[in-house]
Amino acid sequence: MPSTYNELGIELMVTGENAGTWGDNTNTNLNIIQQAVAGYAAVAITDGSTKALAITDGATTTSDARNMIIKLTGTMTGNSIVTVPDSVEKIYLVHNTVDHAGNTLTFKTASGTGVLLCEGNSYTLYSDGTNIAKLDETRVWRAITAAETVQAGANIAANTNGAPVTITLPASPSLGDTVNFIDQGWDFNSNALTVGRNSSNIANASSDLVVNTQGAAFGLVYSGDATTGWTYTEK
Prior knowledge:
By secondary structure, this protein is mainly beta. The chain contains 1 helix and 20 strands.
């Protein structure tokens, strides 16, 4: 019976096989294990397409999906997807440094569902062999001085010192999606922040939210109710 490979690409050697190469094959297996529990890969996302990460049996050099830590880099030109292979059960630590340019970025299995990533945030994700799910999210504050469409989980330090700014909420939000805002330069009274509703209601109203209170700090959470739409966590 020839050797086989498990879902991580580790060679399962059979007694009597690979005569004279057990040492090399075992070292390769140990390197594969190291990659799965502590490996790092930087992956560039530069266009609006699907980036398929791979796991190759018995190899580390073509197996970016096996790494524990994946740093996403680049600037997107359209909505993008990152996939990992189906049938692999493992944890991923994903650091999203991609400039979304107003686009969405999804991390998922090839055939299943996944998680929408927010620009700048970091994630602890896991694959159950079918889908990708989120265990934890580390959110960062980003300073914004120009119009932008943001993703769920965004912490926005809006600076309107030079001119009014419009920040547009995510499209098609889900229950519990949140976006937080602060007046970075204490200028909302001179140049207002407009929160674009992106087809969802805000606080029971079908209109954009205009904030002109100096020093304002507030959060919005999607209620899951179409009439209420986004509502305040605090204001």
